[in-house]
Queue: 2 jobs
Job 1
Amino acid sequence: MIRLSYTDRYQITRLRTLVTNIFSLAAGLVVISIIFLIAGVNPLFAISEIFQGSFGSMYGFKETITKAIPLILIGAGLTLAFRAKFWNIGAEGQMLMGAIFSTWTGLTFGDALPGFAIIPLMFAAGFLGGALWGIIPAILKIRYAINEVISTLMLNYICAHILTMLIVGPWRGATRFGFPGTDNLPDAAILSVIPGSRIHYITLILALACAAILTLAIYKTRFGYEARVVGENPDAGKYAGINFFKTTLILMAVSGGLAGLAGVGEVAGIHHYLGYPASVSSGYGFTAIIVAWLAKLNPLYTVISGIFFAGILVGGDAIQISLGLPAATVEIVNGTLLIFLIMGDYFLHNKITVSFSRT
Amino acid sequence: MEEIIISTLQRAMVAGTPLLLATTGEIICERSGILNLGVEGVMALGAVTAFIVTMTTGSPWLGVLAALAAGMVISIIHAFTSVTLQANQVVSGLALTMLGLGLAGMVGKPYVGKPLTIKMEDITIPILSDIPYIGKALFSQSPFFFMAVGLALVSWFFLQRTRLGIQIRSTGENPKATETQGVNVFLIRYMSVIIGGGFSALAGAHLSISYSKSWIEGMTAGRGWIAIALTIFALWNPGRAIWAAFLFGGIFVAQYLMQPLGISPNFLAMLPYIATLLILVLISLKDPRKLNAPAMLAAPYKRGER
C-alpha cells in the first residue's frame, strides 16, 4: 500500500516559501476557475480580465496602487498582532475610528491651520483613534480573558454604527442637502495626489515607511522579540519576565494605529468627507488579513502582497462591469486564495514522503 | 400591555431561533476541540440555498434539507484544513466565512429582493398555547423554533450521556489520551465540524424562508459571530444555549421596542454587540476558571506526536 509519512521541516528557506506560495496561489486560481465555470463564465477570460484590469493598463495600475495603500498599512500592522497570536479581526473598526478622529480634526482645525500643520495633526488623530479602538480588545483579553476574535468583531459593528450615528446626526453637513455625510474637509486638510491618479502619495510614503520601520522593530528590537515570544512561547515569556499586558497593549496600539492611518488616507485622500462606513472602507480590514498571511507575517512583504490583493480588488471591480458578476466574486477569490495559502503552509512545514510497502 | 408582552416574547423567540441553531452547532464543534469561525459564511450559504430551493421546488422542507447539505459540504473544507492539515483554525475559519459569503452573494444575486410566497405553517400545540402570556410565544411558533429547541436538548443529551458524545468531549480535552482508548480522533473531529456546519446552515435557512422570507446579501448581519460569542456565554453547554439565545433574541427585539421612544436607531442596533461584550466581561468577573472551555480548543492535533 502507499504510505504517506511526514517529518517536520526545521529549516525553511526563503526560496521554498516563495515557491510554496506561488503554487498555493496557482492551485487557488484553478479552483476559482472551476467556480467561474460553474457560474457560466469563461474562467480564462475572467482571470485575465482581473489582471488586465488591475495591472494591464496605466489607469488600472494607478488604481491598484491607490487601493494598496490601506492594505499595506493595515496588513503591516496585522503582522505584528498575528505574530503575538493576537487575532485582530477588528482592523475594519480601527480604520473607521481613525477616519472619525481625523475627520473631526480636519473639520475643526482645517480652516485655522495651514496644510503642513493640519495634515500631520490629522494623521496623529487617526493613529490615536485606531490605537484606542485597538487597545480595548487588548485590555479585554488580558484582564478579562475575553477572546479577541469576538471582541474585535463586535467592536467593528459598534464602530460602524457610531460612524453612521454621527453622519446622520450631529455631523451631517449643511452642504449635503439632507443626505448623510459630513461637509467636505477644508482644502488644507485634503491630501494631494499624483496628477492624473488618485494616489495620495503622502499616505503611500507613510505606508512604505511604516512597513520598513515595523520590520526593523520586529527583527531588531527587544520589543519585537517580546512580541514574538508572547505568541510563540508564552510560558517561556513569563519566566523571562516579559510584561504581557504592556506588550499586548503596545502591539495592539500599533496595529490599530496603522489601521487608523489607513482611515485618514481614505477620508483625506479619496473621499474628502466622512460618508457611510461601507464607502469609507471596502472591506480593507478583512482583505488585509490575507495580505498579512501571504506576507508570512513579515511587514516588508506586505508591500508586495498588498499590491497583489489591491490588484484583485481593482480587477474584481472590472469584471463586475465587463462580465456582470456580483461584488461578492472578490470575496470568493479572496476566500479561496486564503484557504490554499494555509494549505500550502502544511507543505512548507512538513516534508511529505511517499513510500510503497507490502502489507 | 398584555399584547405588547406577548408580541415581544414571541418576537424574541423568533429572533433567538437562528442564534440557538448556530450556537448549538458551534458547541458540538468546539467540544471536539475545533474552533470554527466560518459560521457567518456557512449561515449565509444556508440562507441562500434554502431560499432558492424553496422558491424553485415550492417545498420549504426541501429547502431546509438542501441548506443542511450545503452547510455540511462546505464545512468539510474547514475540517480538512484544521484536522488533516493542522492549519491555523482562526485563519481557516475566516477563509470559510469569506468563501461562504462570496458564494452566497454570487449564487443569490438573481434572487435579491424577490419575495417568497410559500409559507411554512406555524405549529400550534393545543391547550399549552392557551397559557396566558407565554403560551403563544412558546407553543405556537414556526417549525424552526421547535427544531432549534429540540436539537439543543438532543445535543445536550448526546454530549452528556451518549458514548459518542463523551468521545467528542474527551477529544476536545485530550486527543492523545482519547486516541489511546481506540477512538478515531480525526473522524470525531471531522464529524463534529460537519454537524456544526449543518446547524449553522439551518440557522441561515430560518432567516431566509421563515424570518424575512427573502434573500439579500448581508442578511446574516453578524449573527454567526454572535453565535460564536454565545458559545462562550453558554459555557459550551447546549442546555444553557437555549436561554442564552433567547435572551439575545430579546435584545434584538428591544431595538424595535425602544425606537418609538426617540432613541437613535443606530444606537439601538449597537445593543446586541455591546451586550455580547458586557456579558462576556460579567462571566469573566464571576469566575474565569468556571469558563470550562475545552482544554485543547483550537490546538491542532498531530498523530503520533509525543
Note: Chain A touches chain B through 44 residues (CB under 8 Å).
Job 2
Amino acid sequence: MSELQLKDLYDGFRDPEIIRSLAKQITTEAQKLESPLRIMEVCGGHTHTIMKYGLPQLLPDNISFIHGPGCPVCIMPKERIDHAIALAKMENTILLTLGDMIRVPGSKTSLAQERAAGYDIRPLYTPADALKIAKENPDKKVIYFAIGFETTTPMTAAVIKQTIEQKIDNLFFHINHVLVPPAVDAIMADGKAKINAFIGPSHVSVITGAKIYSPLPLAYKTPVVVSGFEPVDVLQGILMMVRQKVEKRAELEIEYTRSVTMEGNTKAQTMIDTYLQPRDHFRWRGIGDIPYSALELREEYAYLDAEKLFAELLPTEPIDDHKLCICGTILKGLAKPMDCKVFGTACTPNTPLGSCMVSSEGACNAYYRYAGVLE
Amino acid sequence: MKTVQLSHGGGGEETNTLIHDLFYKHFNNEILIKAEDAAVLQINKKIAFTTDSFTVSPIFFEGGDIGKLAIAGTVNDLAMMGAKPLYLSSAFIIEEGFSFSDLTQIVESMAKELAKSGAQIVCGDTKVVPRGSVDKIFINTAGIGELMKENISVLNLQENDLIIASRDIGRHGATVLMARENLDVSADLQSDCETLWPAVEALIEANISLNAMRDATRGGLSAVLNEWAQSSEVCIEVEETAVKISDEVRGICEIFGFEAMDFANEGTFILAVSPEDGDTALAILQEFAFCENASVIGRVSQKYPEKVVLHSAYGSSRFLDLPKGELLPRIC
C-alpha cells in the first residue's frame, strides 16, 4: 500500500467534474425554490472558498451569499487592538499573536507598525510556540494575545494547561476567544439581513459538535448545514439546503461527516471549560456588545490573565471605526463590500480603514483579492 | 572554530590573507588577480548592468545557500534581459564571529554557480562589522552582460502571446519558510535556485520571439504577471490547472494558508512568446533538467486590460491580484 499523501485528502474535494455536476444539480433543484435563498456563511474561511473558487458564478441568481461575522480578526474592536499594543510596549515584553492580527489598525497604529518601531511582537505559527518562547526568554514577560473562534480555543487551553503544569512563570494570556452561536443569534434577532439558511463552519463543529446550532432551525425556521471548506463541500452543503427548502424542512444537517459529530470533541470541550468561562460582555466590531459571546480566564487563573494583571495600562473606552468604513454593516450581513464608498479606493489591503479589508478571511479582502476592483 | 574577525575587514595583513587564500583561490581569473582599485574591462557591445543585495535566513537551505543565490540572482537578472553574463562584482558584509568554514562553503558555492554561465567575478570588497550589526552575512553582487537579444521588455507583450512558465512554482519561498520556522513538513522540498542562462541562451540561439521574460523572484508568479499586464496594458488569462505546483509546495500552502503563486522562486522564469514559437520554445526548455516541467500556462488577450484572470477547470474565473503585505500564516 502506498503512503497516504496530503493531496489525497483534498484532491477529490476540488475535482472539476464533481464541482460542475454539483453546480448543475443545484441549478435544477433551485428552480423549485419559492423564494430566493439567502445563505449566510458564518465563517470567513467559507467566504474565502466561495470567492477564491468563484462559486457564485456557478450558481443560479436565486441563490446568494451573505457574509457573516466569522473572522476573528475582523470582529476585534479597536480598543482591544490598543490593549495588545499597550502590552507590547511594556518594558521587557514579548507579545505573541496569530496571523494577520498584527496588521489590523487600532486607534492609532497596528502591531506591525509597533514591531517596526522596535517592540518585540511575533506572529506565531502555532500557539504551542508560546511555551518555547517563554522558556527561551526567562527574563521577559511573554504575553499571548489569544484570538479565534471555537476552533482555536482548545490550543489556547492546552497552552494554559502546560504553562501551569510546567510552572512557567513568565507567560501570560490576553483572551479574545469568541463564540459563533451568540453572534449568529444577534444577527438573526436583528432580522434585517433576511437570511434564510446557514452554512456552519466544520472546523468549529469538530470541536463543539454540530449541536451548537440546534436552536437555530427551531427559532428561525432556517436550514443549517455544517459544511467543510473545500469547494465540493460548500456546494454539497448548498444542495442540502436547497433540498431542505424545497421540501419545506428546517433542520440541522452535517455535510462534513468525515469529522463532525453532533457532540464534537468532548475532551477539548472539557479542557476549555477547565480554564475558560463565558464573559458577561464582549464588544464585537461593527455589531456592538453581545452578552456571553466570548471567553475569559476563570477567576482561579487570574494570575495568568494579562487583562487583569496589567489592567491599569489598558484602555477601557470603546473606539468606533472610521466613519466612512461600513465593516459593521457588512459583518451584520446588510451590505456587500462593493457597497462601501471607500472599497478599493481609500481602503485597500495595504491601507485598510476597516478590519474586513485586513484579514485574508475578511469579506472585503476576499472581494478585493478575487473579484478585483470593478470600475 | 576559526571565525571571521574585525581585523579581516581592516585592510591590513588579515584582509590580504582572506582575499588571497579564499577569494582569489576560488574566483581566480586574470582581471581579478591584478588587484587594482578597479577592474578594467573591454566591451564593445551593448551591455546590460544590474545589482542586487542578498540576505536570506537561514543562509544554508535545501537546494542552495546565500552564495548560490547571490550569483544565480544577478546572473538571472542579466539573462532575463537577453544578456550573456560576463563580469560580476561581489561585496561581502560579514558579522564578526562568522564561521570561517561557512564562509568558505559560501564562496565555493559561488564559484560553482559562476561556472554554469561562464561569468567571472572581477572585483570585490569585504567589510566585517561588529556583532549584531548585520544578520550573519550580506552579499551584494552587480553584473554586466553582453546583450544578445534586444527588446525583451515588460512593455512588449502582444495580444495572443503564449505565457510559459519554465517549471513548477513556489519552491524557494516554501523551502526558506519551512527552514526559517523550523517547520519540518516535507523531506523532499528543495529550493529551485538555479542559473538560468544556459536555457535562455538556447532560446536566443533558436531565435525564439522573446517578447517578455522575467524570473519570478519576490512576489512570485502573481507579481510577474500583474506587472506585465499593467505595463503592457493587456489582459493575461491563465488556466489554473496548467500552472504546475509540486505536491510538497501545495501541501505547505494547504497547511498554512499560503498561495503558491505568491511564493518567491529563484530559478523559475516566465516568458511571453509569439504563438507560433510556443512548441519550439517548450521543446528547447524541456532539454534542461531545471526546465523539464516547462508548460504553457496562459495567453495574452484584451479581455480585462491590466488584469490577470485565472480560469478554473470548472468554469469560474477570478482576478489574480498582486500579493500584499508580508506572508502570514492563517489563524485556523
Note: Chain A has two domains: 10-325, 327-371.
